[in-house]
Amino acid sequence: MIARGGLRAVFLDMDDTLCDTEGLTPRRLEAVQELLHGEIDSALLARVISEAGGWDPLGDNERGRVNRLQRMKDALKLNDDQLARLRTRYNEVLYDNLKLFDGVSEMLAWLRKRVKLGLITNGSSELQ
Fold first, then answer.
1. What is the pTM of this model?
2. d(CA 86, CA 78)
């Protein structure tokens, strides 16, 4: 928002702007593969994990696209319990490894002295 007298606030996106969420996808998928090893046909599991990195992480219900985890559930024919465990492990890896991009802390400190800061995201409310 720009008001008389200059810039008063800056809103920043979190995922893949302030921190590298998608960069952790290979590590997250590897953890899921380890979790489901022995429960799912290994060739099918390897194929789905290999493809899943290119799938939409968020989905778009208006366009009929489902998110990465739902597509994995469908492709692997997971039951609800397996999906819940997959989702938990997938998100644990994110939480345990998520870091700000280099220079973000310094930039935020600099901005904070000058303007109000806000955070926006199109990510899942429960995760954010």
1. 0.83
2. 9
